[in-house]
From TrEMBL, chain A:
Region (Disordered): 59-128
Task performed by this protein: Possesses two activities: a DNA synthesis (polymerase) and an exonucleolytic activity that degrades single-stranded DNA in the 3' to 5' direction. Has a template-primer preference which is characteristic of a replicative DNA polymerase.
Keywords noted in UniProt: DNA replication, DNA-binding, DNA-directed DNA polymerase, Exonuclease, Hydrolase, Multifunctional enzyme, Nuclease, Nucleotidyltransferase, Transferase
Pfam families (alphabetical): DNA_pol_E_B
Protein name, as recorded: DNA polymerase II small subunit
Chain's gene name: polB
Family: Belongs to the DNA polymerase delta/II small subunit family.
EC number(s) on file: 2.7.7.7, 3.1.11.1
From TrEMBL, chain B:
Domain DNA polymerase II large subunit DP2 central residue range list: 323-745
Region (Disordered): 277-325
A GO term, aspect molecular function: DNA binding
Protein family: Belongs to the archaeal DNA polymerase II family.
Source organism of the structure: Natrinema ejinorense
Ranges annotated as biased composition (Acidic residues): 279-319
Name of the molecule in the record: DNA polymerase II large subunit
Coiled coil: 55-82
Subunit structure: Heterodimer of a large subunit and a small subunit.
Record's function text: Possesses two activities: a DNA synthesis (polymerase) and an exonucleolytic activity that degrades single-stranded DNA in the 3'- to 5'-direction. Has a template-primer preference which is characteristic of a replicative DNA polymerase.
Matching Pfam families: PolC_DP2_cat (PF24846), PolC_DP2_central (PF24844), PolC_DP2_N (PF03833)
Sequence ranges assigned to domain DNA polymerase II large subunit DP2 catalytic in this UniProt record: 788-1082
Length: 527, 1209
């Protein structure tokens, strides 16, 4: 039997309903006769197993005695971590193709039957840690009353305002009106309205729990540039001088909740990586099966041995009824079958990778944000890989590194409202910087983004994350803002007719990989 | 013009003059904004054009040019006049171009629509990148009413004038070109275009246009790509521009080309490429994959559009019966509660019959009144239907000379219902509507829509010509009192078929083409096995064994019969033609064979099948349209002893559009007087409430701060807001001041008021305190009415006109007294759906012969003296029939006018009507939305149908057709007395729908030429029917249309029809859509009906209702919920977002949501239920499931949703 690509083993396993640990696959691939070995393994796996584990393979093959070396695990520190793959393909280069990496690993497989490359991923599960904060699934208490909306915005003012109140000598809106003209004043509030005046100045109305007060930004002041960045309903503080009649204040400075410049990101204590992807769109005619399979294959290779976490920022499937006549462009018309297909694709991911996912605007949950994680029926469909399914947005902490996952619908609005130089589809991470600065994933109400009122504002960025991960715009981009790594992952859906018509060229088939110990990013290309 | 026509018009004009005098006298006395009647009379189009534009000298020039050239050429000629300053007083080049463009549009729209004043905002001169100047034309939304040709020509005229005054061409920047393409796509998505150029096409046009098309933003959605352009003011779609480029230039390129060829000054060589679709190669990148791909797409799209035109060629190529292509377009955007009557070309749907009934033509469809009742009253006279062909929509008219629908009753009887009374009687027992009967469409409809003729049904009027062509003496047969040629006995029909070798009479021709050859053979077998009961030479009945295939076949060919499933028999009454057509013979066998039976004296009768399946030729066996052998007509031809034509080869799909309309036009809330009362009148805008309203305890009740125009009395200097000085009763004039320096200003000749010093526009509008209480009391006193004369007097919140001149409250008091309300221009209006009628009977109009004679009707349509009520007379062009509701409303308006004349103006009453008969002969205005010219009409009678019947020329003069359009009538003196331009809103479209000018007589050559395409004959020739089988171009057939008489003495007469109808108001008076209560009731009825109709697939209907109505509603409301505004319940203040205080920032009142849970999920359960019950696709069901869960997730608390046992542990 010629060398067997892990991909074929994986697809064989998934076709029979099994997921597999990466080492298990590696071992199978290394067997003299992988096909026979596979059969033997499947005969011996327990009835209730969904995942073919290294144990199973070892047991099956060792009873047979054909696979001698697979006796026991060699030490995880065997130094094989920095062997050939990383030498051949520098991680920072994003041009490695799936076929190449697949073949490489296959060729190398026999050499690695010592089992050492896989040790780093699964040898010591106790080294892993994964915590979720801010998951509101099952916690939706809003009933769509007026008071629910008021609570949300008050909570926003309270919590984001708290980050500003220490910085300025703030006064309530109603108190400011009663102060003598010419006073130095400051206020913390939500932006209620932004207007330009006839003479080209800017009038910004701030609102707090007592009322509103107008602030005038003169067109010739240096910070006038900031006005372009403002979105309605974000929280900020303004300082300035009260006009003679106390009816308006002239702005001297503006303060945003922002990420403190002193922010120092946490890192993992060991070399471990996370793959950050989104927008898989299974069910679409444009879903890139080959690229996805290449990605899955790659995860089975030693090169990917440190990838122990996979974060999925929404849009697992293409969905139904997202736009008119969508059914004509669906490969899988049935929404449940879409999730079943997605689950099959997920199974190709090594079973020992931890998966966390949040829903997006194509998924079968409510569109209004925050979006709770999938319901029981869909979870059941996707249970094989046992992913963590949490709400959009949610904060996930991986070995001390906090990742704020948000699908990214508000990016459209940020890009539309802000000048092109400050936010564009070509640099989606720059749009994300603004959200970090505003410490809110979707500040503006009443526009593009939909809001479901809950008892508190789940969309606030309360704690500064180490990584901010979004998707939605199908463009790849990453960069650092005040040492927070912002990543917008691309997608797994080729250009659609609609995207063609509005001239959007998606970045499809990329997987950004983050080193959790350094927060460095490498991008793997699979298309 | 014939003398009698001249007499008619002179009569109308004399009556008009009389009313004018009264109005002038009244106006001189009252406190109206102007002391004279404000609607000028235009005798012809030239007058109207000048009056609408307000440019002196245009009328004279138009009249000069009119005789010599076409209107389009005249527009170009006038452009020269403008350029050289011979017409119009413009100093700037931009002004000259503007004048020329406006005049062109006015001329091409016959001076009727508002497009020239409202649709063209301005023309300005901008700079190209190389520093040269170019022309920019600003279009606005109302340009739509000009139509594509006028829009396109306005661009040409602009370019022509540009060339003449010496301005360079526009050189579009690349981003501007891209912007055009993006914007047109956006506008099409948002609003919809009749024709949307593909991106390449739009870019091609934009790149080559020598002038820039620009305009106002008309939508909220913004383009995403090419934003913030220097020379484009807005990021939203500019509707006017999109219309002109798409429906104008792109669609009408061939028409423009006709004129560019003759002009040396303009050169549009690219038009040819546009017409040929060569713009792909023009890009110079033929190898480019993308452009190739797009090219293919465009071709597909084109061929789609031309699919119908290609019908004939397609059928030429392939063997098979001539059939039209199905078109699903009319089913788009199906709405809950408006049923589908027939799916496209479906068996059992309406059968196309050609002809024009007297209440028909001009975008209408004739339906049998029995069918109107049987579709559960959803169709009434005037109900609009969206139709498969030849047009897009049509107004329904009752025509009972058609064949009625065929139904299956619960007792198993299959009956054709030709009497509306029968329809009502049996309606409850109808199990299925097997066939909807005939659907009358006139030839002119195909001409107007340029639609190839569709194969005609075989009907009496064709057959009788076939018979004549076969050599029969039709005249003799017609004269024979024993013979009914149209509805003959079966024996006669068979005899003629055999004797003259003419096709079988349509009465006995069944729909053989709708059953398969197999089913045909099954039927023949069944007949051969059948037996006759009763006297063979008398009323024998054919009895067949009851089997499903036989039953289905009989139902499909629409043969009347009785099904008796429990007795295992099917009975057929008129069996002879049926049996003979099936190729079966009646054989009498001699009794001797049955000698064993002594009492068997009569010979037994047997039915013998004279052919076997194998006798059929392969052509007959495989004859079909959709599948081989699905059409048995060729089999019939081979086995029947006579010729049989296809009975109904064309079925026309349709669904309900708008319901008919006949109701008074009220603003919402209704307004009695255009007097402002601010918020003081509450939501009802009650003047009496405002008169006692006080904001706080310290305010004087009734004193309200309002924005009104300041007027000044020139003789005593008093400042007031009234048109007459309260001190000296002199007329006042607007007191304009500069808003900056408060300098008093006088308007210049053009009516502009500008302060020279501050260069600001002056205004007379000021905010002042008005004592509404005093005004109200004074007004009551002045007209001598008490407050209990009316229930409520409603004013307006504020005035939207430029000078904000309030109307005298007195008029409102009298309106309230007579329960009529005012439109925004001060007139009282009544809306009705337009329908055409060319001949009427006194009996159906609730008038007597004497009344008709008094109106100048002396002869009936046959030239006989008019002596009794049932004679048909030809309607005069400006005579109209009022609906009962309209008559009632007109009577109240007349009472109001009489009181107004007596109590306010101090004159004699004018109308003094006792009952509605006295309305006959009175003049009214007809006035359509989007137009600015009223047409004078005369009341001739009344109908119970909820529509406005009038001569098609009258509707065309208002630029309406009858496909569901509606417009209004006003009582003549109401318009003359109460209309004022000063009331019109000072905003885009404000001058639309206002009688800026009136036409006193209709000139047929100056009306919308759609009306000229109506056929005016009493019979279509046999060649016409034969040509329909070839799906010929309608122009190739010789049927006389109204156009032929234009400009001759006969232009007002000779509107013949092919079909009569007993009464123009048959069928239900109101559509069930209007009589059923809730939306749910309507939808239930719609779905119930879809189950009954054989031509309708109920699952598809349910699917579409969910897809186009429920889902958009649910999704839209859900979206609206999560980004909604809030509103104060107390003061009405709106907030973009919920105030953090929770309460209203303005008044401290309670604030609440504008979109509630209830409005979001009102259709959720219904939609799920319908999807389930009608077996919709999983895709649809799943979309509903996902939505339902979204709703739950938003509106339900996860924590107390379930009270499971764990909650108590």
């Amino acid at each position: 039997m010629p060398l067997e690509a892990p991909a074929r083993i994986v697809s064989e396993l998934t076709s029979r309903g099994y997921n597999a640990e990466r080492e298990a696959v590696t071992r199978l691939a290394a067997a003299d006769d992988p096909t026979a070995a596979l059969e033997r393994v499947l005969e011996t796996v327990p009835e209730d197993a969904l995942v073919v584990r290294t144990d199973h393979v070892r047991r099956a093959l060792s009873t047979d005695g054909t696979d001698g070396p697979a006796g026991s695990e060699s030490g995880p520190d065997a130094g094989s971590g920095d062997e050939s793959p990383s030498a051949d393909v520098p991680p920072s280069v994003s041009t490695g193709t799936s076929a190449a990496s697949g073949r490489e690993s296959a060729e190398r497989a026999p050499v690695e039957t010592e089992g050492s490359p896989t040790a780093n991923r699964s040898a010591d599960p106790t080294q892993r840690s994964l915590e979720i904060v801010g998951d509101m699934t099952g916690q939706s208490t809003g009933t769509g009353e007026y008071s629910d909306f008021v609570s949300v915005f008050r909570d926003r003012l309270d919590r984001l305002g708290a980050k500003l109140r220490g910085r300025v000598n703030h006064r309530p809106a109603t108190a400011i009106q009663d102060m003598p003209g010419g006073s130095e004043v400051a206020m913390v509030g939500l932006v209620n309205d932004i207007r330009s005046t006839a003479s080209g100045h800017w009038l910004i109305e701030l609102e707090d729990a007592t009322g509103t007060f107008p602030w005038l930004v003169m067109k010739d002041r240096e910070y006038v540039d900031l006005v372009d960045e403002l979105l309605c309903d974000e929280v900020l503080a303004m300082e300035g001088t009260l006009a003679d009649d106390s009816g308006i204040a002239f702005v001297d400075s503006m303060h945003f909740p922002d990420v403190p410049r002193t922010h120092e990101p946490s890192t993992a204590d060991r070399h471990v990586q996370a793959a950050l992807i989104s927008d898989v769109h299974v069910g679409s005619q444009e879903f890139m099966t080959d690229a996805w399979n290449a990605f899955a294959d790659w995860l089975h290779t030693p090169e990917a041995q440190h990838v122990e976490y996979l974060l999925l920022a929404g849009d697992m499937v293409e969905g139904v009824g997202v736009y008119p006549d969508q059914d004509e462009e669906l490969d899988i018309v049935d929404i449940y079958e879409q999730y079943e297909a997605f689950s099959e694709h997920l199974k190709k991911i090594p079973g020992d990778i931890e998966v966390v996912m949040i829903p997006g605007n194509h998924d079968a949950v409510r569109l209004a944000e925050p979006q709770p994680g999938f319901d029981e029926e869909l979870r059941e469909i996707m249970s094989a890989h046992d992913p963590q399914i949490v709400s959009n947005p949610s904060m996930v902490t991986l070995e001390g590194v906090s990742v704020l996952m948000y699908h990214g619908v508000s990016l459209d609005e940020v890009i539309a409202e802000l000048p092109e130089a400050k936010a564009s589809y070509d640099d989606p991470h720059k749009a994300m910087y603004h959200l970090l600065k505003k410490r809110h994933v979707a500040p503006q109400f009443g526009g593009h983004t939909r809001l479901a009122p809950e008892e508190k504002d789940y969309l606030i960025i309360d704690e500064v994350p180490d990584i901010f991960h979004t998707g939605h715009v199908h463009k790849l981009g990453f960069g650092k803002y005040h040492d927070v790594l912002a990543i917008n992952s691309g997608c797994w859906q080729a250009q659609t007719d609609f995207q063609k018509s509005v001239n959007i060229d998606p970045d499809a088939g990329f997987a950004p990989i983050v080193d959790l110990d350094t927060l460095d990013v490498t991008v793997q290309k699979f298309s | 013009m014939r003398p009698e026509d001249e007499q008619y018009f002179e009569g109308l004009e004399a009556q008009l003059d009389e009313a004018f005098d009264v109005a002038e006298r009244a106006k001189a006395r009252g406190g109206d904004p102007k002391p004279a009647v404000e609607i000028p009379v235009a005798k012809d189009m030239a007058d109207r054009v000048e009056n609408i534009l307000g440019i002196d000298g245009v009328a004279e020039r138009v009249r000069e040019l009119e005789g010599q050239m076409s209107r389009e050429e005249a527009a170009l000629e006038l452009a020269e006049d403008f350029a050289e300053g011979r017409v119009g007083d413009y100093e700037t080049k931009a002004g000259k171009v503007e004048g020329a463009v406006r005049t062109a549009v006015a001329l091409l729209t016959e001076g009727v629509v508002a497009a020239p004043i409202e649709g063209i905002d301005k023309v300005e001169i901008l700079e190209n990148d190389d520093g040269t100047e170019f022309v920019n034309v600003y279009y606005a939304g109302p340009i739509r009413s000009a139509g594509g040709t006028a829009q396109a020509l306005s661009v040409l005229v602009a370019d022509y004038t540009r060339a003449l005054v010496g301005i360079e061409q526009y050189d579009a920047r690349d981003e501007e070109v891209e912007r055009y393409a993006e914007e047109i796509a956006l506008y099409d998505k948002e609003t919809g275009l009749q024709y949307t150029p593909k991106a390449k096409e739009a870019k091609f046009i934009a790149k080559h246009l020598p002038i820039m098309l620009d305009g106002e933003a008309t939508g909220d959605e913004e383009v995403s790509g090419f934003r913030d352009l220097e020379r484009v003011d807005t990021n939203s779609a500019r509707g006017g521009m999109c219309l002109v480029l798409g429906e104008g230039i792109a669609l009408k390129a061939p028409k423009i080309q006709r004129y560019t060829r003759n002009l040396d000054e303009v050169d549009w060589p690219w038009l040819q490429d546009l017409i040929d679709g060569n713009y792909y190669d023009d890009e110079g990148e033929p190898g480019d994959d993308e452009s190739d791909g797009d090219g293919d797409e465009a071709e597909t799209a084109e061929s789609d559009a031309d699919a119908e035109a290609d019908d004939d060629s397609a059928t030429d190529d392939s063997e098979g019966p001539p059939r039209v292509e199905t078109s699903e377009k009319f089913l788009r955007d199906l709405i809950a509660g408006r049923p589908v009557f027939s799916h496209p070309c479906a068996h059992g749907g309406f059968r196309l019959r050609y002809g024009r009934a007297r209440n028909h033509g001009f975008a209408t469809a004739g339906v049998h009144p029995a069918a109107m009742h049987l579709v559960d009253d959803f169709l009434a006279t005037g109900t609009q239907i969206k139709t498969e062909r030849p047009g897009k929509a049509a107004g329904v008219v009752p025509v009972d000379s058609l064949e009625g629908p065929t139904v299956k009753l619960a007792n198993g009887d299959v009956r054709r219902i030709d009497d509306p009374e029968d329809a009502l009687e049996i309606r409850n027992g109808v199990e299925a509507i097997l066939d909807l009967g005939e659907y009358l469409v006139n030839y002119g409809e195909f001409v107007e829509n340029n639609h190839p003729l569709a194969p005609a049904s075989y009907t009496y009027e064709w057959w009788v010509q076939d018979l004549e062509a076969a050599g029969a003496d039709v005249q003799a047969l017609e004269d024979d009192p024993r013979i009914d040629l149209e509805f003959p006995d079966p024996e006669d029909a068979l005899e003629w078929a055999v004797e003259y070798d003419a096709p079988l009479h349509p009465e006995y021709t069944y729909l053989w083409h709708d059953i398969s050859v197999d089913a045909f053979c099954t039927l023949a077998d069944a007949v051969a096995d059948g037996r006759l009961e009763g006297e063979i030479d008398g009323d024998a009945t054919l009895v067949l064994e009851y089997t499903d295939p036989v039953r289905e076949a009989l139902e499909t060919i629409v043969l009347e019969h009785r099904q008796r499933a429990d007795e295992n028999r099917i009975e057929i009454g008129d069996w002879r033609p049926f049996v003979r057509t099936l190729g079966c013979e009646v054989r009498r066998t001699a009794a001797d064979g049955a000698a064993l039976e002594p009492n068997e004296q009569t010979p037994t009768v047997e039915l013998e099948r004279t052919w076997s399946d194998d006798d059929l030729s392969s052509r007959a066996r495989t004859w079909g349209h959709e599948a081989e052998g699905d059409n048995a007509i060729e089999a019939v031809t081979e086995v029947a002893p006579f010729r049989v034509r296809e009975r109904a080869p064309t079925r026309i799909g349709n669904r309900m559009g708008r319901p008919e309309k006949s109701e008074s036009r009220d603003l919402s809330p209704a307004v009695h007087t255009l007097f402002p009362i601010g918020e003081a009148g509450g939501t009802q805008r009650n003047v009496a409430d405002a008169a006692t309203h006080a904001e706080t305890m310290s305010d004087t009740p009734g004193v309200v701060e309002l924005q009104v125009g300041r007027q000044r009395c020139d003789s005593c200097g008093t400042e007031t807001f009234k048109n007459r000085c309260p001190d000296c009763d002199e007329r006042t004039t607007p007191d304009y001041r500069c808003p900056d320096c408060d300098q008093r200003l006088e308007p210049d000749e053009a009516g502009r008021v500008e302060c020279d010093r501050c260069e600001r526009e002056g205004t007379c509008v000021e905010t002042r305190e008005i004592d509404v209480h005093e005004e109200f009391r004074d007004a009551l006193e002045s007209v001598g009415e008490r407050e209990n004369a009316f229930e409520i007097l409603k004013g307006v919140k504020g005035l939207s006109s430029q000078n904000k001149i309030p109307e005298p409250i007195e008029k409102g008091i009298l309106r309230a007294k007579h329960d009529v309300s005012s439109f925004k221009d001060g007139t009282v209006r009544y809306d009705m759906t337009d329908l055409p009628v060319t001949s009427v009977r006194a009996s159906e109009l609730d008038v007597d012969v004497g009344q008709l004679q008094a109106l100048g009707y002396e002869e009936d349509i046959h030239g006989e003296p008019l002596t009794h009520e049932d004679q048909l007379v030809e309607l005069k062009v400006q005579d109209i029939v009022l609906s009962d509701g309209a008559a009632e409303h007109m009577l109240r308006t007349a009472d109001f006018i009489d009181d107004l004349l007596e109590q306010y103006y101090g004159l004699e009453p004018y109308y003094e009507f006792e009952d509605r008969q006295e309305l006959v002969g009175e003049l009214v205005f007809g006035m359509a939305p989007h137009t600015s010219a009223a047409t004078v009409g005369r009341v001739i009678g009344f109908t119970s149908a909820a529509v406005g019947y009038a001569h098609p020329y009258f509707h065309a003069a208002k630029r309406r057709n009858c496909d569901g359009d509606e417009d209004c009538v006003m009582l003549l003196l109401d318009g003359l007395l109460n209309f004022s331009k000063s009331f019109l809103p000072d905003q885009r479209g404000g001058k639309m729908d206002a009688p800026l000018v009136m036409s006193s007589r209709i000139d047929p050559s100056e009306i919308d030429d759609e009306a000229h395409n109506m056929d005016v004959v009493s019979q279509y020739p046999r060649e016409f029917y034969l040509a329909t089988r070839e799906q010929a171009d309608p122009e190739e057939v010789d049927v006389e249309i109204a156009e032929a008489n234009l400009g001759t003495d006969l232009e007002y007469t000779g509107f013949d029809h092919t079909h009569d109808t007993t009464n123009i108001a048959m069928g239900p008076d109101l559509s069930a859509y209007k009589t059923l209560g809730s939306m749910m009731d309507k939808m239930d009825a719609q779905l119930e009906l879809s189950r009954k109709l054989a031509a309708v697939d109920e699952t598809d209907v349910a699917e579409r209702v969910i897809e186009y109505h429920f889902l958009p509603d649910l999704i839209g409301n859900l979206r609206a919920f999560s980004r909604q505004e809030t509103r104060c319940l107390d003061c009405g203040e709106k907030f973009r977002r919920m105030p953090l205080t929770g309460d209203c920032r303005e008044c401290g009142g309670r604030v609440n949501l504008t979109v509630h849970k209830g409005s979001v999920n009102k259709y959720m359960q219904t939609a799920i239920q319908v999807a389930e019950e009608y077996d919709c696709r999983d895709y649809t069901k799943q979309r509903l499931e996902v939505l339902e869960r979204s709703l739950e997730s938003i509106f339900e608390n996860d924590k107390n949703k379930q009270s499971g046992i764990e909650d108590f542990m």
